[in-house]
């Protein structure tokens, strides 16, 4: 009997890589908002374009094969052997799961304190120094059961502080994870055993929802990823860009979905996600590792969790997998597109008068992602202006807006090129030139109707804002 069990465990060990990785291409991915320009309020790509994409359905098909095969194996002796092998490997970690989780939470807040100038993630920047010290306080509060609820309140407080500077839609990526971690701290500190036993369940749901929500960016705004893929072409593993992006989105969504399913699917999904996130560390560096530290830690805990956690009979059937996957994807899609429409496109006739002024990637050092009023664009010295709203955002016609933007550009460019240093003159002249290109693209998004030109305008905004950021950083280093 013991020799049979050993053979099963050895077979499980050999089968594991194929089960976890064979269903999908290994797609190294980072959070695009940390490394590339983006504009949250720009109209998302129509859902129909994703539904007509054969690569999207290829990804869905591969994942369904993976899930169905895994669920079928889970019912067999082989499945039991694989799960037992996982338990043997992760048993020491699971016996200290709370210590591990609290250490990682504390280490994460110490790390972002050391990075400085951010709220919770790399793209949520702040100039308030006391925010960083608040992160250090949260790290200290994690180590006592009495103060863990205060740490949880601090995490929610940081999110609310970020909400005062950033737009709600932009922050939804991080809400589920933040609530999950905060709820874990509260439940872990509770003396009520009924509450306490759900502490890792809320973590799992928080990460799963965060992954599924953020994955929709790859379908709604594939052009956000173009500069990143062009800068690091090896990320696609030789796949065409337009094939890689939808399949990466499918991988992220479905593995997040898998975290909510039966034990073997859950644990293999966690293992696959852990490998994917680790593959992003080398090309994107420590910033990516710090930003994803909490998610990666929770994924490790999910992988180590030996409990079956099949609370609903529907999860035990094979036919439920495709049905619930489609239903979950439909619900998240309707929520994402519907909420975006409610926040940014309520005034269909005016196309939201200030839409061209709002940007969640403005590179303004004081309010890096905040909206500027359309009628009062931020004014700074020539060559130093933050990338804010078009000067003519409130103009009544596209022609007036274009002419006003050009008029502003010529004055700023002329002032910039007067600098005595040739390099600085070039940069100070090119910044308003690029800003004018972005202004024109935003005016096109406000007034234009042609789908091709609207897509080109979004690509221009992404590329030009990225170059503006580089030039402003170059200037700042010489101030």
How would you describe this structure to a colleague?
It is a single chain. This protein has 479 residues and is mainly α. It folds into 2 domains: 2-344, no CATH class; 347-479, no CATH class. Helices cover 67% and strands 0% of the residues. The protein is built from 20 helices and no strands. Helix 5 packs antiparallel against helix 6 (129-141), helix 5 (97-115) runs antiparallel to helix 16 and helix 14 runs antiparallel to helix 16 (293-304). The model is unreliable at 1-5, 7-28 and 346-395 (pLDDT under 50).
Secondary structure: helix percent: 55-70%
| Distance between the first and last residues' Cα | 74 Å
Looking at how many chains there are and whether they match, the oligomeric state comes to single chain
The helix count comes to: 20
Shape: globular
The overall pLDDT average reads 78
Q: Into which percentage range does the β-strand content fall?
A: under 5%
Computed CA radius of gyration, to the nearest angstrom: 24 Å
The string of secondary-structure elements, in order, is: HHHHHHHHHHHHHHHHHHHH
Summarize the main sheet.
none
User: Helices and strands: which structural class?
Assistant: mainly alpha
How many domains make up the coordinates? 2
Q: Tell me the total number of β-strands.
A: 0
* Low-pLDDT regions: 1-5, 7-28, 346-395
Keywords: Membrane, Transmembrane, Transmembrane helix
Protein name: DUF305 domain-containing protein
Region (Disordered): 355-397
Transmembrane segments: 54-73, 103-121, 150-168, 174-190, 202-221, 243-261, 290-306, 318-339
